[in-house]
Design brief:
The complex is a heterodimer. In chain A, about 80% of the residues lie in helices and about 0% in strands. By secondary structure, chain A is mainly α. Chain A has one domain (about 25-240): MetI-like fold (Orthogonal Bundle), CATH 1.10.3720. In chain A, helix 3 runs antiparallel to helix 8 (about 150-185). The longest helix of chain A is centred in the C-terminal third of the chain and has 38 residues, at about 150-185. Chain B is of the alpha/beta class. Chain B has helices spanning about 60-65, 105-110, 120-130, 150-160, 180-195, 205-210, 245-255, and strands spanning about 15-25, 30-45, 50, 75-80, 80-85, 90-95, 165-170, 200-205, 215-220, 225-230. In chain B, strands 6-7-8-3-9-10 form a six-stranded mixed beta sheet, with helices on both faces. In chain B, strands 2-1-4-5 form a four-stranded antiparallel beta sheet, with helices on one face. Chain B is globular and about 50 Å long. The chains are: A mainly alpha, B alpha/beta. At the A-B interface, helix 7 and helix 8 of A face strand 6 of B.
């Protein structure tokens, strides 16, 4: 908190003393935030961005977690799909923007698709690795007690991968939040990313640009804090103690 | 020499575990490694047999095959006359404390194998084995809050809770300090006195084997073969300074080719 306060003070002083017009001062940014709030845009844009992130991220999780477990358990399946994953993974989600617009038009669905792509591969790889990391001793112990495949999955594989999965979800949510801003600059006309690019295009309102940046930072921090809470649950925390 | 209370080494009834002509060879990319060769061994019901050998001689592999985690390259392993087809809840493998599930509490771990029972029965069984291994008050603790010895007790309790006929113990006390190790041996014998399981106990510790076993199976270096089977004809509780104890222990030292001096 002191760090933030010092930074804002230094920022204000630097802008004041240099008289620069390249960066708005903190006060101008606060006024811009007030302006957005009074026009109802602050909440609307945040909700629009969060809506896209939520759907893209949830869809990715719903597909990637079961797929990652299946691939992690099946050596052959993974061997077959691994080259494809390795080629698709380094493609920046932003490279998908033209195709996303072509397929879904300018709107929510294009943005959701981009967030899905950005989240999916990172989650898939996390889950596959976590399944590989399940201690064979634990698997053998479970088999020894006569567990069938379904119980093995529910009582050993799932709890064993949970800590790594939660970390994966947290990092991926961070990436999704990065991507939504980029996606909104091009593929939609609402949201925080749109606010930033629109403020520049429509009148060089750099106070609004920085206000958008501040909103992104605040929400990113909030999301991270929320997911971090999961890491303190006993069924997750065991993974961080050894 | 007292033989009255020692159980007979060769039972007249059917052996619990019968191993015949068992061998194990692993293929590595550039060669075949023969780990175990021509092993014959019978274990009587209720007998505690220690398999003793140097590290890396293949004792653990032997135990893994008997437990059904690996298939033998040669020969057969039969239990109650039936070939071993895979792991079986009637015969539980106790790993060095690493087998405890870190995401479950002490209670959760001990009750892990009891999913076929009703909730009430499971609770009663768990409570009984928590007491048996002296972990009262730690029922809700997670393994990472426990010492190595306590984790080992959780694993032993988890194994006993499903009431198996046979226990496979793979250097179960190897990771413990020497005081805890001695205590755990005492507890194992105390439990064995009450529950009377057939126990196969793998160790590289000569003293441990002579303290615990009805018979000690001395293995050679790789490819491991049975070098000698020593019957420990001392009644429990064993006097570790008795003439017979030292005689048997030194006999094994000599068999392995170690001078009993440091």
């Amino acid at each position: 908190m002191t760090g933030v306060a010092l930074f804002v003070a230094a920022w204000a002083a630097a802008v004041q003393l240099s008289g620069t017009r390249l960066v708005p001062g903190p006060l101008a940014v606060v006024r811009a935030l007030g302006e957005l709030l009074s026009h109802g845009l602050l909440l609307r844009y945040l909700v629009a961005s969060l809506f896209r992130v939520t759907w893209g991220f949830l869809l990715a999780a719903v597909v990637a977690i079961p797929a990652g477990i299946a691939l992690g358990l099946s050596r052959r399946g993974e061997a077959a799909l691994n080259p494809l994953m390795q080629v698709l993974r380094p493609i920046s989600p932003l490279a998908w923007i033209p195709l996303a617009i072509l397929w879904f038009g300018v709107g929510d669905r294009a943005a959701i698709w981009l967030i899905f792509i950005a989240s999916f591969f990172s989650l898939l790889v996390t889950v596959i690795r976590a399944v590989h990391d399940v201690d064979p001793v634990h698997r053998n112990a479970a088999l020894n007690f006569g567990l069938d495949r379904r119980r093995l999955l529910r009582d050993v594989v799932l709890p064993a991968i949970l800590p790594q999965l939660v970390i994966g979800l947290r990092l991926t949510l961070g990436v999704a939040w990065l991507v939504v801003v980029a996606a909104e600059m091009i593929a939609v006309n609402s949201g925080v990313g749109f606010l930033i690019i629109d403020a520049r295009n429509a009148g060089n309102r750099y106070d609004l640009v920085v206000a958008g940046m501040v909103m992104i930072g605040a929400v990113g921090l909030l999301l991270d804090t929320l997911v971090r809470r999961l890491e303190r649950l006993p069924s997750v925390a065991w993974g961080f103690s050894a | 020499m007292t033989v009255a209370t020692a159980r007979p080494a060769t039972a007249t009834t059917q052996p619990k575990v019968a191993i015949r002509g068992f061998g194990m060879t692993f293929a590595t990319p550039d060669k075949q490694v023969e780990v175990l060769r021509g092993i014959d061994l019978d274990v009587a019901p209720g007998e505690l047999v220690c398999v003793l050998g140097p590290s890396g001689c293949g004792k653990t592999t032997l135990l893994n095959v008997i437990a059904g985690f690996l298939a033998p390259s040669e020969g057969t392993v039969r239990i109650d006359g039936e070939p071993v087809a895979g792991p079986d809840p009637r015969r539980i493998f106790v790993f060095q404390e690493r087998g405890v599930f870190p995401w479950l509490t002490v209670e959760g771990n001990i009750g892990f194998g009891l999913w076929r029972l009703s909730e009430t029965e499971r609770r009663a069984r768990v409570a009984h084995y928590v007491r048996l291994v002296g972990l009262e008050g730690f029922e809700r603790a997670y393994p990472q809050e426990l010492s190595g010895g306590m984790k080992q007790r959780v694993e032993v309790a988890r194994a006993l809770a499903v009431d198996p006929d046979v226990l496979y113990l793979d250097e179960p006390f190897g990771a413990l300090d020497s005081i805890t190790r001695l205590q755990m041996r005492g507890e194992l014998l105390r439990i064995q006195e009450r529950e009377r399981k057939t126990v196969l106990f793998v160790t590289h510790d000569i003293d441990e084997s002579v303290q615990l076993a009805d018979r000690v199976v001395v293995m050679s270096a790789r490819p491991a073969q049975v070098r000698k089977i020593v019957e420990i004809d001392i009644p429990h509780p064993r006097d570790l300074s008795s003439r017979r104890y030292i005689e048997l222990r030194d006999g094994i030292f000599a068999e392995i080719g170690l001078a009993h001096r440091v």
